[in-house]
Design a protein that fits this description.
With 420 residues, this protein is mainly alpha-helical. It has helices at residues 6-31, 35-45, 49-70, 90-106, 111-119, 123-140, 150-159, 172-180, 184-204, 207-210, 213-234, 248-253, 257-260, 277-288, 298-316, 328-347, 354-359, 365-390, 397-407; strands at 2-3, 87-88, 164-165, 238-240, 245-247. The protein has one domain. 65% of the residues lie in helices and 3% in strands. A hairpin with a 4-residue loop joins strand 4 and strand 5.
């Protein structure tokens, strides 16, 4: 798509991201797609339907990215956040993922689900949103009157020392290239195709899943929305000037672009797709900055799109319901969960959508590690909650943790402290 100016291209891309997010919000609300719910169903009742929908979304997005990159329509080598970055911060992926998984369990849903619940009338989620926004914002922005962030104060000194600096990108294709010498693009198409095929095979093995239209609809549409955002931000716009023709991101990152157009460079310009924790933090900066149009990012537009999509479907189906905290314990639990999500989501470079679908679609090893850590954090928290509920009198946190680890076969049965 050709544009005569950067401003027009930028506006079109922001609006396109909003529309795709609106569709995502409506479909997630309709189908009850929920990543925390997917883990809960599997851990508590052995139902894999929503988990398969989640992985179907991964497969759809991964297939699209693999094909589009092979066709050179766009590249995810340099993105926001840097999924394929050469800094493999493995400890941050693990700790951040576990924190996020624990937090989303305590706060009744991940970042995306928080937005969905806001659209459905859940006032608890507005509180969760506000706390996430503050924590996420100050993870990457300094405190007032200081040059310190939460990340620099709490994590940097010990987590950064464990990071591995790679010679190239951290996606599977690039890593195999460093070992085999085979062309990276060839390895990416092969690995992307094989992994996608394997996921689809595992997903559609279930007859129950094949007969559940809502789960299939959710997986396909969410995967396509993530892919659509990649295309919109990375391959859709072409800007013609008197001097040259640029892609949107090339033009935005040109050191001399401000000489071509006398205006401030907008924030958040990059190839990107959907992730929700950092954009929720950006929404605080956008508000504090007086709603400056240059601070309106793709991510903020996505946040608004999901909320309004969920609100529209809730009103259309008359399912809009006002909800509030049951008691003080419920409030405190959600606050703790929101803090863990805001900090953990930034540390892990994303959430269940941002790393779990968007990041994994790039074949980034860090995204896969973060996804596993998120699932583990969520699942172990659910198990601990179960044991504390079933053994109120003697279920200390330590006993519940040990018994949960035994259930996941991470500890021997002799270390069980509570009956299942």
């Amino acid at each position: 798509m050709l544009f005569e100016s950067f401003a027009t291209a930028h506006s079109t891309i922001i609006w396109s991201g909003f529309i795709l997010a609106f569709i995502m919000g409506a479909v997630v609300t309709k189908t009850n797609f929920c990543t925390m719910g997917a883990i809960s169903d599997l851990v508590n009742i052995g139902d894999s339907g929503r988990m398969r929908a989640w992985f179907l979304a991964i497969a759809v997005a991964m297939a699209g990215v693999t094909i589009f990159e092979f066709m050179e329509i766009f590249s995810t080598d340099s993105t926001r956040p840097p999924y394929r970055g050469s800094n493999f911060a493995w400890l941050e992926y693990i700790i951040g993922g576990i924190m996020f998984g624990t937090g989303m369990t305590l706060a009744s849903g991940c970042g995306n689900k928080t937005l969905i619940r806001i659209g459905g009338g859940n006032l608890k989620s507005i509180i969760v949103f506000a706390i996430i926004s503050v924590c996420a914002y100050f993870m990457v922005n300094p405190f007032p009157g200081s040059d310190k962030t939460i990340y620099s104060v709490v994590f940097y000194s010990w987590t950064s020392a464990t990071s591995i600096s790679l010679a190239g990108h951290q996606d599977i294709g690039s890593l195999l290239n460093s070992v085999t010498g085979i062309d990276t693009s060839t390895l990416r198409i092969v690995c992307g195709t094989l992994i996608t095929a394997l996921i689809l095979l595992l997903v559609f093995r279930s007859a129950d899943f094949r007969s559940n239209r809502n789960n299939i609809l959710a997986g396909v549409v969410i995967g396509l929305c993530v892919l659509g955002a990649w295309y919109v931000s990375g391959g859709m716009a072409q800007i013609n000037t008197d001097d040259a023709s640029y892609s949107w991101t090339e033009y935005a990152n040109d050191d001399n672009w401000s000489m071509l157009e006398e205006s401030k460079r907008p924030d958040g310009i990059a190839v990107q797709s959907y992730t929700f924790i950092n954009p929720i933090g950006e929404s605080l900066g956008y508000t504090l900055g007086g709603f400056d149009s240059n601070a309106l990012t793709f991510g903020i537009a996505a946040v608004l799109g999901v909320i309004l999509g969920a609100l529209s479907w809730s009103l259309l189906t008359k399912s809009f319901r006002i909800e509030w905290f049951i008691n003080l314990k419920d409030f405190v639990t959600h606050v703790i969960g929101a803090i863990l999500m805001g900090i953990g989501g930034i540390l892990a470079l994303g959430c269940t959508i941002g790393q779990g679908i968007t990041g994994v679609s790039t074949l980034a090893l860090g995204s896969m590690l973060a996804l596993v850590s998120i699932i583990f954090g969520c699942a172990i928290t659910m198990k601990i909650q179960y044991y504390k509920l079933m053994h109120e009198s003697d279920a200390t946190f330590f006993k519940a943790l040990l018994s949960s680890l035994v259930d996941f076969k991470l500890l021997p049965k002799t270390m069980r402290k509570l009956d299942n």
